[in-house]
Amino acid sequence: MDGDIKNLIKKLERSVFAGNRVIAAEELGKLGDPYALPALIEALDDPNPRVRVAVAEALGKFNMHGVVPGLVKALNDPESPVKKAAIASLERIGTPEAISGITKGFGDKDKFVQKEAVKSLMRIGSVEAVYGLEKALAYPDDSLKRISVVALGKIDTYEAALCLVKTIENSDNKTRKQASETLGKRGKSDVLDELMETLRDPRPSVQEAASETLCKIVSASTSVPVLIRALDASSRDVRKNSVETLGKIGTQEAVSGLLKALDDSDWYLRSRAADALGYIGSPEAAQGLVKALDIYDNSLRKIVTCALGKNGTPEAINGLIKALNDPDYSVRESAVLGLGKTGTPEAISGLLIALHDTKIAVREAAASALGDIKAQQAVPELIKILEGSESLMQKVSICSLEKIGTPEAISGLVRAAESPDAYIRRAALKALKGINKSNLTPVRGFIETEISDEDSVLRSCLKDGDSEVRIKTSNLSGDIQNMKSLKELELSISVEETEESRVHQSVDSREKKDIGLNCQYCSRNLNLPIAPNFCPFCGMKLRLKCD
To answer: Where are the beta strands (DSSP E) in 75-217?
Structure first.
């Protein structure tokens, strides 16, 4: 035996200074000579806690089976730092006996000691450590259960995952939920069979937790059979989770399960299944949805038509056209909206039929949809609506004609500007302005031709009795002609002279150049050779004043 080791042992046993004993314990741990073990184990009873901590740490460096009993004994020390040091040393040793010793820390009153024991087992990560953590779940302490579940989730082994499945089966609701979430975050499917067995548990809370876990961990390749089987579960929440997960997967393999869910006794689940089938977008899904139109109540048929609108297949379009004859107008409206999303020739034909529906809501939806898809075939029908008496339909038709924007549509809008209804005149002028802003050369040229006529509709609108019509006309005229000066704009508009304008006409031309005329509404300068009745900027009737 080395003389230095003897001196260190002597210092550890006899020195009156705690600091010297701490140094001796640390040095003996570094040397690792088995001869020092008896002295170190005996020093675990040292009256000074600093010395006992140093001794516990030193024993862990020996990494020998013989030190385990002493370290386990140290777990009964009254000081927490000593117990934590003993747990750390047992972790370094890592034998089954050491792991068994660590589990004694679960019963400690100090939360930090409990936590240290759990963390040590997590870092060891062996099968024995997993079983040790499973013991922690049997303790009544909620915080201990929580950290143990988290620790099991970080041990990436089948044994740890299986322990979490058992936790779902045998724990309280709070711990069960946490175990489910932990397995979900783990994201591996090595315990699918075990979870499927758990679905057969008679307790709804267990079924739901297992179902939620399944929905989180399964992959598209392995999940569909599992989820379809789960559709037979007695728990509504289990079936709900399965339907929603099948919808998220969205593969052709999921279609059969979702079609099965269309026959579920729960209305909500049927509606979710229908919605999911719409997003999948396969002919098989569309065919299943079309069949559902003949089975279910009004509210579900409406959801089915919405789903068909998302599907987009020819089978879905045929189903939507079929739904245009549904006795419930809300179903017909939903079918119109679905057709409007597709824009196919078949869909346009269906929408033209819907323009003559008995319900105005359906007709309005059809007119709007035809504008959204820019269906040029619909222009004659939309113009006919403008000649009718339904103001709401007229407004929708005007908006659709603006979106379509063909010369034929523009001609209809110009005629609408002659409507006896000021509201319709305003809408038509607004639509013409919107078309003009699109900078389509043929459209611009067509409007310019209309304005160049002596009896132009827009010229007459400049003298309309409705101020908003005058404003919109003035703005439209300025946009179309692209005037570079107020003088040119004034010359393009026919207006009657006011008394004030005639006074201004009698003023010498040289003097007029020095007079600034302002609109009292928009404050724009109107330094024109002829004073107008209406402001070409805001359209308001003028009472001219000079600066």
So the answer is: none
Closest CA to 134 of 113, 161, 156: 161
- Predicted confidence at residue 76, as pLDDT, reads 93
- Can you give the residue ranges of every domain in the chain? 1-124, 497-547
Continuous segment of H or E residues that includes residue 518: strand 517-518
Contact between 9 and 24 (Cβ < 8 Å): yes
Q: Is-contact 71 90, C-beta < 8 A?
A: yes
Largest CA distance in the chain: 132
Identify which of 3, 7, 37 has the alpha carbon closest to the alpha carbon of residue 20.
7
Q: State the number of CA atoms in the 13 A half-sphere of 318 facing the CB.
A: 10
DSSP-based three-state secondary structure for 204: helix
For residue 57 the two structure tokens come to 């740490």
pLDDT of residue 265: 83
**What one-character DSSP code corresponds to residue 312?**
-
Residue 142 CA from chain centroid, whole number: 33
Average pLDDT, the chain: 80
Q: CA nearest 477: which of 501, 502, 495?
A: 495
CATH number of 1-124: 1.25.10.10
Tell me how many helices (H) and strands (E) the chain has: 34, 2
Alpha-carbon distance 170 to 172, whole Å? 7
Instruction: Please write the tens of the pLDDT for every residue from 34-55.
Output: 889 999 999 999 999 999 999 9
Beta-strand (E) ranges in 79-193?
A: none
Helix (H) or strand (E) holding 305: helix 298-311
- Residue 534: strand pairing partners: 541
- Residue 243 near residue 224 (C-beta atoms within 8 A): no
Buried b (16+ CB within 10 A) or exposed e, 519-542: beeeeeebebeebbbbbbbbbbeb
Pick from 513, 473, 505, 507: which is nearest to 489 by CA? Answer: 473
Helix (H, G, I), strand (E, B), or coil: what is residue 545? strand
Q: Residue 355 carries which DSSP code?
A: T
